[in-house]
Amino acid sequence: MSVQTQTLRVSDAQFKDAVGLLGEFVAIPSVSNPDSEDYRPENMQAAANFSARKFEDLGFKVEILTVGDSQPFVVAQKIQDKALPTILLYAHGDVQPVERNQWDTDPFVMVEKDNRLYGRGASDDKAGVVAMMTAFQAYKEANRPLPCNVTVLIEHEEEYGSGHMGAFLQEQAKRLQASAMLILDGGNKDTQTGTTENSTRGVVTFEMEVTALEKPVHSGTGCLVPDSGMAMAKLIASLENPRNIPGFMDDCDLISEEEVRLLDESSISEEAYREENGVLPGGVLRGNPAESIFRRIVEEPSLSILNMTYGKKGGGNSIQDKAHCTFGVRLTPGQDPNRITNLVINYLHSQTVHGGCGLNVRQAGLTSPAWKANLSGPFAQCYMKALERTYTKTAVMPTGGTLPLITDFEQAFPEMEILVGAVEDPKTAAHSHNESQDIGILRNAMDSLIEWMEEIGKNIKPA
Description:
Alpha-Beta Plaits; 2 domains; 13 helices; globular
């Protein structure tokens, strides 16, 4: 068998180097939220420089770019042959803020324990960046050409909402043009199952304020006055089932029988979902109990209370003048965030349960539509084959979260296949304290990326 046809894998030595590289990357506290005490502009630049230098060492043409007052974007390209298909690989090098007193160890000093690597960004998403680097290192050391053209995009403000992504894609559309894109920032069903995320949910966030009085009053002498807290409670109760909002479900995409089959086959059990999310005994899950967990996530929009403010802890025997609430709606594919915003606001204003109190409802914060992958596309089929060759098992999994940047890419490149690959798992605790990366998944992410490129080279013809 020739060297060229042998299966390429990351070697033990290469993987050991990769773990060390990840530790160096984690040591850069690249917190992108300017409101955090850990935010330092120089750390964002240091993170970008770290990735840029490594991709340059791997033979890529690299530029560090900005648009407006954005954090740096790293763009690395290796064009083998313009006739070959081009893929775009995305990950991000910025991280969430930390509450140091909640961590068992220093969040910016990576620690290995029980087959996991602990540190802020060790998984989300510096593992994705290092997985890419190491896959290309394997090609370099094997002296093998890449089977396709590759563009790598490393962002440094994903954890702060990707606010400049749309403008950046408009400005760099020609440079970033590709047939398919892999976002290496998703979650696996478990540590043994290579997972393709087939959909994300959209989101609309609202703030609601009820005003009953000019000022707080004593609960004894003011016992007859309207109560803003009670009015708020009734309004919140009216939102318990968003299906009661007229027109709310009208635009939800129907899922096909094949999608139902894939979701049901891949789904985790209700017991596993309860355990993963810390549901207390007796707690009732939303949605149709006859359907699988994954199907419910795809089909069932949800409305959740995120914050309520009324008075002070302990009460103080006073009736408050105002009550405040923040709530979010998670959307399914097909629902338009702007339409849902209007439906929800109009519905709340149509209610009479607030007893004549003043009501103000507005959309606030993040707004983004849902997304659904085309898993029948040629690049998606190649990726699913790559996972089958790398992991013990494979699954198709929806995510209840939102990736706003997907909308930006869909608008900029409507013909591009977009896939979401995974480096995380249920124990990762991304955004939380003691974030960690499973070591086996990290290595499989590297090998599955190699396998994907090999499958593309074998199955997708040059232009």
